[in-house]
Design brief:
Number of helices: 9
Number of domains: 2
CATH architecture of the largest domain: 3-Layer(aba) Sandwich
Largest sheet: 7 strands, mixed
Length: 300
Amino acid sequence: MTDFVPQMTEDEFDAALAAADSRPLLAYFRQDDCPPCVEMTEPLAAMAERLAGRMRMACLNQAIDEETQELQTHPLHRRYPMTAMPLFALFASGRPVLWVCEEDAAALEALLTDVLDALEGMPLPPVPGWAVKTPRERTVHLPDPSPAGLTLFDVSDPEETRELTGTATIPAGEETYLQVAWMPRVGGPKPDYAALSAFSGAADHLTLSDEELDDEKMDHVLELTGIRSARIYVAKLTPVGVRKLAGLSGVASIYLLGEPGPAIDEALQYVREALPDTIVQDRWAAAGLTPLLQRAAARS
């Protein structure tokens, strides 16, 4: 492949990962309705040219259809955990070694230069659990009706989001989202946290936007197994509650919404160390590269 491919299909991407070319491959996840992605177009092309001898780069774009004005889903945006954009994943020897959300092209280039230097002669770790998604068909048995404040959605069809209740079949490759929401100013029933475990094995992603989520409720969240990503609003969580997230073993990504603050950031560092294969706040690096990611965050 050439050093920079402006748009790559899933098959082309898999072929590039398996190619004999020893240079790392930088995957750039973007979409047309993302303003920072649009702003980075020219700087990234220039960066790809400067680093051409050291790495390859491929854009995995979700384009907007000119006729329907609908966003066209790229399969690789479903294979890997998407949290925010623009996202960059660096693959070396066919496996991911770096995952970062970055809107500053200069900062990204500085980080990549450090990483490419470090990769020379560095033994690569095993592929993390989130790197490959195995589609499978599932038959799940859910509460009917859904417990208060808990709703499981199948959003595989953008034109028809459906709530799942009772006995339901989830086709291979499709993903589900469990929404746990409560806002005092809006009202409604408070989430029944004791019923969360009933969605284990059925929920792929968790969005928890309860403005009164506290440390005690987090214990029930940890009873939910099988989720691949979690987005959690941290209004009343203490560092103790955030540290409990380290119990979400196997989760691909964790992102805290709101304004965490220094104490929460310190607790997140504990989570990163406890879950070395989990993307935390849109940042992950393989063992040996983690210090570079930390230094890059300190510079920004």
